[in-house]
Amino acid sequence: MMDNNDVATHISKKFNQELEAVRNKVLAMGGVVESQIELAIKALVTGDMQLAELVIKQDNQIDNFQRDIDIQCTEIIALRQPTAFDLRLVLVVLSLIDELERIGDLAERVAKMAIHLSNGSVGKSDPHYELKHMAGLVQAMLKNALNAFARMSSDGVLDIIRSDEEVDLEYGSIIRQLITQMMEDPRNITRMLDVLWTVRALERIGDHARYICEHLIYLMNGEDIRHLTPAEVQDRLLS
Amino acid sequence: MDNFNTHNHISGKFDTELESIHTKLTEMGKVVEKQLSLAIEAFATGNIEMAELVLQQDYVADEFEAVIDAQCVSTIALRQPTGRDLSLLIAIIKVTGDLDSIAAKAQGIADTTIHLKRMLPSDAVQEVDNDGQ
Prior knowledge:
heterodimer, A: Methane Monooxygenase Hydroxylase, Chain G, domain 1, B: mainly alpha, Methane Monooxygenase Hydroxylase, Chain G, domain 1, 5 helices
């Protein structure tokens, strides 16, 4: 299996530096995205509106990262004409930053919902505990996916893809709980719908973290495993 | 201007490759459009068979995406295009991703149709049909 040393073994030192710079920028962008999710969840749970506003304001940082990295990648392909692993790396980075940008948008959505929800009376019945648990799951998925990218290794990536199934189960269970609460007291419905959009955003963050892992497997193994079930992915990688 | 610019390369083979990607992308677009309109119609009319048809065809967009992406990557690797051609190929990879997301949403609509049919009278969803047009 290739490791990150590959990035440092080009005849052109300048090319090494360019790839390294792009990689570091992706990791920096990932860090910002992670912190946005963290802050959005905190804003939601504590009802801190200023924090939520901050998340919304900071989303443009992520967009700027995306635009910069996009330009850098296109330049590398045009000027360096990379092939094989290098080409896959640049193409994967282009995909990764799209996933990260979408996760950033979802964090912003959570922050907007935090503002909506803090306007109403604090619902004792809000499933904050479950929400935090689910947020913890998707945050761990993203963190592990970015770590795998930092290590340039697809080891353990399959476990991250599998944990998306756990997120989906949690999602289903929170939805059922919300429906029960809506039926118990129809006055809850507006509020519960906002909670529902939040849960939905978290579930989508899990999906995008899974896509990042799929891109990583393509990078390291050259296999396009999108749209396969985790079991099929395992078969494909072992064969 | 024709973005695909398929008749101006010194290499005739390159023209053919771009032409082939162009054709596949157009086909993919049509398939996804069809999926979405079927899903909306299934939803509006509460037609479960139609919704199931949409669900059965989910692999079509996936396959298009995988094939077109692979073709773009090998074209970039072998032809080492620059300028417009390169931007075009990178853009196509993004477009296939977006089309696939749209197809996935159509699946979601079909899924919801089947769920809803068990709970709601069908006239409640007429409004969505108007919005979807």
